[in-house]
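Tutorial, part two.
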Amino acid sequence: MPRDGTTLALFIDGSNAYATAKALGFDIDYKRLLTEFQSRGTLVRALYYAATFEDQEYSIRPLIDWLDYNGFTVVTKPAREFDDGEGRRKFKRSMRVELAIDALEIANQVDNITLFSGDGDFCSLLEAVQRRGVHVTVISSLRSKPPMIADELRRQADTFIEMDDLKAAIGRTLNTVPPRAA
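Running the prediction step on this input gives:
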């Protein structure tokens, strides 16, 4: 899609985008993703949201560092541990509030906000941004098993893009282990 003067911002719910791509059998190549969306207009900001786990931070740290040095604004916070009341250890790791505030703050500076998430809790955010005249695109999947997008989010979006349709543009194939010889 050629540049047409459109300004846009990307909001990537890291854990949701990761899970969706995995369910579709590929990894997101964030360099290719950035290039793809730069070709669609003037990319004002690309934001990536992730909760980090103190004892597991090493696994996501290389990605966070790469994104931070390569054109993304990375927003992280530590996941918070709590007891569910039945003695089970649980974690709060939502970045929804941070993403929503950032989207509302940038809404007056862009024509389009693209959200990589299928989380239905973002419906109110989409509605608020749309009231400001911003076109909202949601990227997730109906084809994954199970579908990764909440129906109400898909309906609220101005445009829904099936992540599987972007696979050739933004993906890299998962490393697969060759079958063992018998």
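Residues 176-182 have pLDDT under 50 and may be disordered. In part three we will examine how such features are distributed along the chain.
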